[in-house]
Amino acid sequence: MNQTNASPRIRIQNVHKVFKTDDREVVALKDIHFDIPDGQFVCLLGPSGCGKSTLLNAIAGFALPSSGQILTGDKVVTEPGPDRGMVFQEYALFPWMTVEQNVAFGLEIKGTPKSEIHQRVTQLLDKLGLIDFRTRFPKDLSGGMRQRVAIARVLALDSPIMLMDEPFGALDALTRRNLQDELLRIWDEFRKTIVFVTHSIEEAIYLADRIVVMTYRPGTVKRDMLVNLPRLRDPADPEFNALKRELGQLVMEEQQRHHNAEMKAAAVD
Amino acid sequence: MAKNNKGSFLQGLLVPIVVIALWEGASRAGWINPQILPSPWAVLKKWVEYATPLKPYEPEAGSWLAWAFSGELIMDAIGSLYRVVAGFLIGAGLALPLGLLMGSSQRIYGLMNLTVQVIRPIPPIAYIPLAILWFGLGNPPALFLISLGAFFPVLMNTIAGVRQVDSIYLRAARNLGASQSTLFLRVMLPAAVPYILSGVRIGIGTAFIVVIVAEMIAVSNGLGFRIMEAREYFWSDKIIAGMITIGLLGLAIDLGMSRLNNYMLRWHRGLEN
């Protein structure tokens, strides 16, 4: 299922990741190999323990592969960097900075001139409906608002890639849908390559160009499929539901393996 | 809110008023020897006398303000306060960078921790003989002792504060491209501020205790010195006036600290975070 594209934005090449604890080794990722073309919206889907966050962290440069490599453009990933902005599930906003300061932080690090930072931050805050909150601290914001700030913080970097680790997992259903639509709008406008980790099948179908289903340990690619439904997608649509059933089956199998493995581990203990 | 504060302030006055009333009553009834425990009224009279300038105001001698502050009590309080602030700044100024280093680098922590843990339990009072031997009399030994008292609370809290910084902030900052120094100054330091400030508060408190002891021994002004001097003459009313001044100064410092705390931690939502 290799995507053929002139210059893939992200190349994941034979990636293995092994976690060692005192008494055993866990193979978190095994033989992961695929390219992500520029501008694609990819969802990594699977039950917990399938290594989807591990793969995302490897792309982000937080935890490098045990073997194999990941390239962005023609550069091998060796450390975290602003060319791969990350949106975390826990928001990870700096609580001692105001909304405005949070969004400006990446630009300050880059050494962007003050006036330009101000202009750019104002523009982004305006776009994300945060302009009235610019001098507030994160503690004063709702979860949905905080995640908007986190997204604005990444957008400010103007990086080609946006990594998202279950960003809407902690939000209520309504806020979640709201932010999903917002994200699609942003993706459309800024043409980012997005790698989005989720365990929600519906979320993956609603958002993605392409869904990569991963297996429970060792994490491998179980299915790599394109979603060809027109946007905005309707979760009540029959095609949407057919896809949901199909993916549900795949994820369920892995969930079952996860469950069995845990039962077995408990029996050994 | 303001009304509430006022209410609790009035409520807080209840106990002192009752205690002072009982004490005054017992003194007037002649149950207590005034040499041993003077009446509150006598203490108050002494306190006013102690605070009043010694000479009448003479315009040619200097400004009115300087004259108004020339009372013995005021001069003593300023002397003590100066030592607390200067000593605290020296102690905290040394503790903060060391704490940041020890908290963020396992190597430096391993190198310094044993030394710190051995020196920390030695009370500053125990350094008095050495302090006098090294620095002679006057302000230098006092400042040495006070800075020692302020040093360890600030150091320990800074280490703890840096160590408890949530790794998610470090990850987020590295993701944004932060260099090691940016990480240190813009993320670890502000994230540790709640801990550091509580260390500062304890440190000021310790400095305040140590200043009184240091003044009793090494210098010839300040509230601690004045209390010891009064003891020589059996001026128990002046001793108590001095003690109450210490209490009020301590309260004022703590209120100021609490204000600073509230301002600096306006982003903080408390234990939950």
TrEMBL record, chain B:
Bilayer topology term: Multi-pass membrane protein
Keywords: Cell membrane, Membrane, Transmembrane, Transmembrane helix, Transport
Segments forming a coiled coil: none
Compartments where found: Cell membrane
ABC transmembrane type-1 domain location: 77-257
One Pfam family per UniProt: BPD_transp_1
Family: Belongs to the binding-protein-dependent transport system permease family.
Official protein name in the record: ABC transporter permease
